[in-house]
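Let's study a protein:

___
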Amino acid sequence: MILIHESSWKKVMQDEFGKPYFKKLSEFVEKEYENETIYPIRQDIFKAFESCPFNKLKVVLIGQDPYHGPGQANGLCFSVNDGIKKPPSLQNIFKELQSDLNTEIRESGCLQRWADQGVLLLNATLTVAAQSPGAHQNKGWEEFTDQVIQRISDLKEHVVFILWGAYAQKKGRKINEGKHLVIKSAHPSPLSARRGFFGSKPFSNTNAFLKSYGKEEIKW
């Protein structure tokens, strides 16, 4: 069975693993890894959680599907491993970061350093079949990640949720905006980045909010 091993997340999500939908999802995913090429590699399915324990979480960034090309998906939304060319959306994220914080664009597209500082890089669907975007949608992952978002909203205080594009914004509609900061803009995809993503300053706005509650800022 597929499970989160990180102790603080395990405690928060334990009851989900016994639900019928999750057992069915787990069986589906196990079979897919046996018979198909699936991304990310099996041990990275829950990398977003293993890299960002619940008790250290400060920011949630919501993506949709893992990348479906060889060597791209690494279990963190929008992120690719070192040495892999940055996909277009990630290139635009770095352009906005450069503009927002006046930083240099890093060569690496790996966002592990964000996760290590308390940024949960959460895809709505945690697995995908090679070259088949959306192949693992509507199998149960969305129900699980909805619960993740709900529990963060309910159990934590003063978290920043970054919702890029209509899909992420719909996914985050139950977040309690009375106690959390929800940053919404267009998606960084080349199709929509110029319609409100560029110039939205998500990185500086996140840090200003964290700082206002005495939390350490993210070194983006």
